[in-house]
Recover the amino acids of this structure.
């Protein structure tokens, strides 16, 4: 019998989608997120808010081809009928983004990240939907 000795870790991660309106680019994410946070420079959490906004921008690295994502999701739905219908909602949302000319990105956070801010983002459920950004993260566990 083999016995494992040493440290074993159990890590978590979470994935998110982020959409930007026509005319906005990935490079704009940090400033948009900072605008949503509204943390004054005099705040003791100002540096952390900067770090978190940088993490959002860096993690949103995978720009989706909306048509391909719709096809893949429909294929998945056909092969694995859903219990909760998230796929149909996702397809509808993608079609809305395409119609409006929005760009859609996918990214993720890990509790094995280099900072406490990333760990916090990994475990947080967040949703923002307005005319500047759409962001949804389901916290890891």
């Amino acid at each position: 019998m083999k016995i494992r000795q040493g440290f074993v870790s159990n890590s978590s991660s979470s994935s998110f989608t982020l959409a930007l309106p026509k005319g906005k680019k990935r490079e704009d994410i940090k400033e948009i997120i900072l605008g949503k946070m509204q943390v004054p420079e005099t705040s003791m959490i100002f540096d952390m808010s900067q770090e978190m906004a940088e993490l959002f921008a860096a993690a949103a690295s995978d720009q989706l081809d909306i048509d391909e994502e719709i096809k893949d999701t429909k294929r998945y739905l056909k092969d694995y009928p859903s219990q909760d219908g998230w796929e149909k909602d996702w397809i509808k949302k993608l079609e809305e983004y395409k119609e409006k000319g929005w760009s859609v990105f996918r990214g993720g956070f890990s509790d094995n990240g280099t900072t406490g801010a990333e760990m916090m983002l990994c475990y947080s459920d967040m949703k923002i939907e307005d005319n500047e950004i759409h962001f949804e993260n389901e916290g890891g566990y």
Observations:
- The longest helix spans residues 86-100.
- The two ends are 31 Å apart (CA to CA).
- The first strand starts at residue 13 and ends at 20.
